[in-house]
## 1
Amino acid sequence: MQQTAKLYSFIGKKHPEFILQNKKIPISPDIAQPIGKVLQRLPRLVPPRQVLCYNALPSHFLINFMSNHTSWSSKIGFVLAAAGSAIGLGAIWKFPYTAGTNGGAVFFLLFLIFTVLVALPVQLAEFYIGRTGGKNAVDSFRVLRPGTQWLWVGRMGVAACFILLSFYSVVGGWVLNYVVHSFTGAIHAGADFEALFGTTISNPAGSLSYQALFMLITVWVVKGGISDGIEKANRYLMPGLFILFIALAVRSLTLPDAMEGVSFLLKPNWSYFKADTMITALGQAFFALSIGVSAMITYASYLGKDQDMFRSGHTIMWMNLLVSLLAGLVIFPAVFAFGFEPNQGPGLIFIVLPAVFMKMPFGTVLFAVFMLLVVFATLTSAFSMLETVIASTIRQDERKRKKHTWLIGTAIFIVGIPSALSFGAWGEFKVFGKTIFDLWDYVISAVIMPIGALSVSIFTAWIQDKQSVLKDAGAGSTVPRAVLLLWLNTLRYLAPIAIIIVFVNSLGIL
């Protein structure tokens, strides 16, 4: 018996109208699935190439050639984008100063262990939810557990990305401002870098202007979509970041007494092996892989079922660890070579490093290069935050992307204005003893991220059917079943305990 296939049209920027628009073709059921598979694998016929085969009626078999779903054009595109999301300021800014105040090598060793044993399994759980659900951070939970309240996890993540980008863009603006400082002569050997940083963050016009510029760049990339926007940008930014980092690390390691900084980073001082250092390293591990805010769920929703998410997850993790190591090898040898202390806190890259670089030949150029790679890392993280929000509003209808990206990007900038003014005009305005910037930072990093990570772990390991999770997570992977079981049991027991410890500590209870 013959049934009917309907091929829906697609009109794209670079592609003509699909020639079989609305044309009904008699087709037998035994060849409907092969046709669907062929269409699904056509390389870049159109950017969105998902094919859904389903029975609309007992007498009709439809192949719905969807024009409103997009995907990564390659595995490396996903890996670079997800690695860019994870690296960000966490690896280049937060890791060095946190390591510097917590003993260097001991902190790095604990950070490495916790990243592999705890943070990576949670990241893989987010990959599972996004890839299996195949939709945005909210609708993926709706697909996996329809009719339940688990949607709030995705909604919380989307809200977190909106708020996070509102104050993250402020720091991104500072970084852009410092790049400009490097080329306009404000960064020089005789400069007062503490005063320069204070002026940079407290000047309302300058702070808001560079915040707006940072958001403009982010919106411009994200409005281009996954393959033509985010993926294309990361294909240039991420390799550029590694090349610049390696070049700066080589220069830093050739300085006099540089090995003292290397020893600080790689030779453990076991007097720092204590509970506070362990909890801080555990928190940094979660922050480093960009988990708990649904960004990885969103990125994984564009990942094909035939892709090995475990291999991708490990690659992303090691790229993040490598960047953290390179950041340490750039900063600490230079800091020790010129007699500075490593425990400088958050002002390390804005106050101490300019002074360090100015003591080197061509220091102004080298510092400009360093700040440029910080810009790269900051932007790649911002892309994922904005995409998480956009994906939840357009709900796979790419026709809405440009309009929604401009509107939401503008809204994020407006919401971020109080954070930008927290270091100047609104510095005295505080809520619960915190400025607006510090309040949002605390809410996201100390409350929402741990709750989000804990919820993802419980959902994957306890709520979902065990066999279904193993099957869906292992699709496209050669990982043995024993490893899959180890991953699932880590999510069941070890990850929740670790997350609760971080959460309780962040609330000041421990």
Note: Strands lie at 3-6, 24-27, 51-57, 60-65.
## 2
Amino acid sequence: AANQLIQLKLADMQTEISLALQGCYRAGQLMDAGQIAPELISLIKRNSCGKSLAIARQARDMLGGNGISDEYPVMRHMVNLEVVNTYEGTHDIHALILGRTQTDIPAF
């Protein structure tokens, strides 16, 4: 982590994680209050899952060849996130939900 490029990547990762967590936290508050719009859930899920996968991929890349070995858990987390993107609803499905809200035209 003494390398400046690694520090930059870590700072970017922390920023994206913090922003996603705040979005999830706020969505949870709205859900508890019964005030959340369904498309907001799609927006949060689409963003959070996509960012998580991108961060895991970046972490794998930062480790070089070790990133794909079973010596480090990064690859396992990345594969788990690929599965989450599938069972939470694909990126594209959530995009269609958001598009329907924006245009009032259903595309599915």
Note: The mean pLDDT is 93.
